[in-house]
Structures are given as structure tokens and as C-alpha cells.
Amino acid sequence: MASIDSVSSAAINDTRRTKHGLDRDYIYGRWGPYQRLQLAFTYFHLLETTFQLMIGVFIAYSPGFQCASSDHKNQSLTNTSFGTTYETCDKKMYRNGSIRHGLKSVQGCFEYVYFLKKHSTIVTEFDLVCDQAYLAELIQAVLMAGQIAGAVFVSPVCDRMGRKTVHLSCNLLTLIIGISAAFAPNYTILVILKFILGVLQQGMVMSGVVLTLEIFPERIRFQAAIWGAFVTSSGLVVMTGIAYLLQNFSWRYLQITLSCFSLLSLIQYWTQDESLRWLIVNGKMKRIEKILLKVAKWNKLDYEDLMQNVKHKMATVRDGKEETNETLLQNENTHYKAEKYSIKTILHTRSILIISSMMCFIW
After folding, report:
1. Which of 73, 172, 194, 195 is 20 to 30 Å from the Cα of 34, by its Cα?
2. Rounded CA gap, 12 and 26, in Å?
């Protein structure tokens, strides 16, 4: 966090300042404790976004196994009394109890013996082996399909209803659905819940990344994105350590533990604010005033100076050009209406279309 603060301070020092010492190009005026708190929340949630996405590596692990004998004992050698051998996915019976007399029949297994405890993973609990082995991998595919659905539907909702609303809702629902998945009584219900978690995971990622970037000045957002990627990758390390500590327990305990990281969403409503930039673009004046009071208090800034700075931004959004301070003060009660964008904007704007096409190709 210290490195982020130093980068932010350096960037703001290079920008234009008003006579009151505020950065005119930065909606929060200057970097301070307020942004640090907001950033801590968003980075923590970015840390956990990988949990539901990559947990399948552990809970869907397929251990060694073989067909179980009638007395549920692990037998890999020929039983001379019955002429039967128990292999990975079937049992073979031989004439006169000897392999050399020829194979008599091959039967599929009804039960299996695993080299792990029965309820260690979903593979061992639901017997997702042999001709059912594809079902273990299908769960990950279904979760990725949920991500696709989330990418399609969550992004417009995020722009319409706000970053915080989507981020908080997805985080809270991840807590509920994630714990519910740990109590799934069968494979079908687990798959359905995993699809929903895929949608929610994408919602957390998209809203969380935007929340993070909009806290920073525009000129250093690329560095903020790098830090966000570092935090997200660190989540994989944290998850691996937790999985190691719980390796001797049922997969359900790991599912519950990782889902409980979303418990912070229970206080997120009161501690994390909506993106000030989104509020400015959408002309939410009352909510802007409330947040600016907090920014002024935490960062020890003058509220009137901050408000004047924000009105300058709102005027730019409204008219596409800058206005003088005198004009802004005269239009204090003006209703600001933001221009709405859609997919047509991408198709009609050559530069945006090229950039979007390049990003799609890279992903």
C-alpha cells in the first residue's frame, strides 16, 4: 500500500492544482486516508475472486481408485476361489479361478475403493470416475459458462445501477450460494449452484476492477491495474495454503471456508462508497455531497473546494467542454444529465471499435 500511495502522490504532484492545493483533474482532490480505506476493501474482495473460480482444482481432485470387492476390501490380486480380479473400472471373472484358462466375463463396478477418504472430494463422494469421470470436469465448464453469462449481463447492470450495488450484491450472494454449495445433497444441485457462482464471480471481478481503477487518477490507473492483478494472483497462494491445511477434511469444509471470506460484505454497505466518478457521470448530486463530506473529513480538505472541483467535472460530462468557475457557481442548481452509451457506440466509433476488437482477440 505504501508503494501505491507514493505513486499516487507523485502523479498528483505533477498535475494541475487549484489555488487551494487540489488537483483539478482528480475528482477526490488529492490522495489520502479515504482512498486507502476504499482501496483496502476493493483489494480484499479482488483477493477472493479467484476462490470460487479455481476451487475445483481441490474439491474435484481425482485420487487413485479401483473397483471394490463384495466385502468392500481392496483386492488387486487374483482370488483363486472365485476367479475374479478387481481392476480400476471393472471386475473380471476367469474360468476355474485362473487367468490362464481364459476370461469368462467382465462386469462394471457398483462401488469403488479410493486412496482417500470417501468424502474428501466430490469425485470420491459422488463416484465421478470411469464412465462418470467427465462429470467432474463438467463442473468447471459450467462455472465458466456462468462467467460468460455474468460478463454479458452484469456489465450493463454495473453501468446502470452502480459499481457498489453490483459489487455488494454479488459478494453477499457469493457468501450465501457458496456456503449452500457445501451442503449440496447431489451432483445436479451442485452444478446449478456452481453456475450461479460463476455469474457472481464475474460480477465481483468486473465491478471490483472498475471500483479500484476509478479511485486512482487517470494517469496512474495502469499501475493500479498491475497491483490489482498482483492481489488477484496472491489469492491463489492464499487458497492453496488453506486447501493444504484442510486436506484431511471433506471438500465441504474447504468450500465453506473460502466462501466465508465474503463475510466482509455484511459491513460493506456502511463502509464502502459508490464510485464518485460513476455518481458524477450519472448526476447523483445528493449522494455526491454525502461522499464529499466524508472525503473532506478524512483527507482534511475544504468541502467547498471539493464541491467546486466536482462541479467542474460534471459540467465537462454534461457539455463536453470546460466551463469557468463563475459559470459553475451560477449553475449550482442545474440538473446534470449524462449521455448514455450502448453497443452502437462501439460500432459507430472507429477508435473504440479497434481497441475493443484487439482486447477481444487478446482475451
Report:
1. 172
2. 8
